[in-house]
Design brief:
- This protein is an all-alpha fold and 311 residues long.
- It has one domain.
- The chain contains 11 helices and 2 strands; from the N terminus they run ααααααααββααα.
- The longest helix is centred in the N-terminal third of the chain and has 22 residues.
- The radius of gyration is 20 Å and the shape is globular.
Length: 311
């Protein structure tokens, strides 16, 4: 396809759009489930900030962390990792839940938003060419455009001869991810009816994605081996898949938790969480890209409005 990998500047807009779609989907699902607006929008704001930090922070190496601790300077990170976005979003959402004193699980709506975001951002990856697979002669192999990242990588590593007009066909990693995300979105409602415990649906989605990503990395180009032929991402995903799916299995054997009604937390808790989110935004000022700034704007402005209504 002549347009695959031909538009590297489109990744940023699709990255921001993915967070927007995730926000809208999660907000709608949470609204349908009766979440109080201000609390839920603040949880989603926290998830967005955590996801934006995680997608870049997951790419930091030991040397980057040492420099950060020694000099207090945030390193430049160009690579973004979806597993990092997932981890960051879940940790931040969990922290927001704790800060608001909410006892009910807040995770299940995030499963819908996360898979929707994966489908959107991978369209950007497909057009930008930032993610591509290993060479393949399979009928579904994708040939990226001349001048794409895949083309340069194949020329540099001798996969194609010097002067070749295009790279060798590769596994279409972004298309695999889009197919996985759409299949997951179609499966979630039925799976949600079978799983009894609050939060199980989200952990099942996390475990399923981690298992899928573990397998996918065998066909992913330019990944660095970490241990026993596996990449660092694969090691993290293997541990995550086992832990998440085991947790679902254990929880589903326990007595069903009663769904608790959630009232809007007090203004003091809401305001304190909002102030904390703004502080994080300011603390990482200079590290945010324009796409990140758009993500933060989309998340914080509705939360600000909801907080003003409560006040």
């Amino acid at each position: 396809m002549e347009f695959a990998g031909a538009f590297p500047d489109l990744f940023g807009p699709f990255y921001a759009s993915a967070f927007l779609v995730s926000y809208l989907v999660s907000a709608w699902v949470g609204y349908r489930r009766g979440w109080p607006p201000a609390a839920w929008l603040l949880v989603l704001a926290a998830a967005g900030i955590g996801g934006a930090l995680g997608t870049r922070g997951f790419s930091l190496g030991i040397a980057d962390l040492q420099a950060l601790l020694a000099e207090g300077v945030l390193p430049e990170v160009g690579t973004r990792r979806i597993p990092g976005a997932v981890a960051g979003a879940l940790l931040a959402a969990g922290g927001a839940r704790w800060a608001l004193g909410i006892r009910r699980s807040i995770l299940d709506p995030l499963a819908y938003g996360g898979l929707a975001a994966l489908a959107v951002v991978r369209v950007g990856c497909f057009l930008a060419g930032c993610c591509f697979g290993t060479p393949t002669d399979a009928p579904w192999g994708l040939t990226y455009a001349e001048g794409s990242f895949a083309h340069g990588f194949h020329l540099a590593h001798g996969v194609v001869e010097a002067g070749a007009a295009a790279p060798h066909p590769v596994h279409p990693i972004p298309l695999y991810d889009i197919a996985f995300a759409l299949f997951g979105l179609a499966l979630l409602p039925a799976l949600g009816r079978r799983l009894r415990q609050p939060g199980s649906l989200c952990w099942a989605a996390v475990g399923g994605y981690a298992a899928y990503r573990f397998v996918q990395d065998f066909a992913r180009a330019n990944e660095v081996e970490a241990f026993a032929g596996l990449t660092a991402i694969q090691l993290a995903c293997a541990a995550t898949a086992v832990a998440a799916l085991a947790w679902v299995a254990v929880r589903e054997r326990q007595p069903v938790e009663r769904e608790r009604e959630v009232a809007e937390p007090g203004l003091a808790r809401l305001a304190a969480l909002f102030a904390g989110l703004v502080a994080v935004r300011v603390a990482f000022d200079g590290w945010w890209t324009p796409a990140d700034e758009a993500v933060l704007l989309v998340r914080l402005v509705p939360a600000t409005a909801a907080l003003a209504v409560v006040a």
